[in-house]
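Here is an idea for our session: we take a single protein and study its fold together. To get us started, please write out a protein record for me. Start from the sequence, derive the backbone structure tokens from it, and show both lines together. Go ahead whenever you are ready, and we will take it from there:
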Amino acid sequence: MRLSNDVTARWAAFPDLSLQELYDLLKLRQEVFILEQASFYGDIDGKDQEALHYLIHDRASGAFLGAIRLFVDPVEGFARIGRVVIAPAGRGTGLGRAMMQAGIDKARELAPGCEIHVSAQSYLERFYGSLGFRTISAEYIEDGIPHVDMVRA
């Protein structure tokens, strides 16, 4: 799926994030993961510096709409997509699918043929399945929320 012309999207390594982008990213993750989902955990986990970040903004207002972070190890042929977050204004628009597809494409670009892993909130298992991920674990609780591990070969 392509992103609409109403948004801008870009990949950025941690040092390439502006201070405003970093603030907006951490604020959105706090609002969604910690406050909205009432999951009190340490989101700032020391891994953002190692990740590539896919950032989406509303073109007109500049509002931050969503992001994912991607870890790729081309030597091991392994990638992980995580911290998939969408602002309320971006939900139901196909943004989640577009972000995940961008993550899949980037992982394959950086590590052709790699397995891509996600730790999915259980209620999103069907969504990730529609993107080619298959469940490889029983349901477990992470940060107070049911999850399953999934992989895309």
About this structure: The chain has one domain: 7-152.
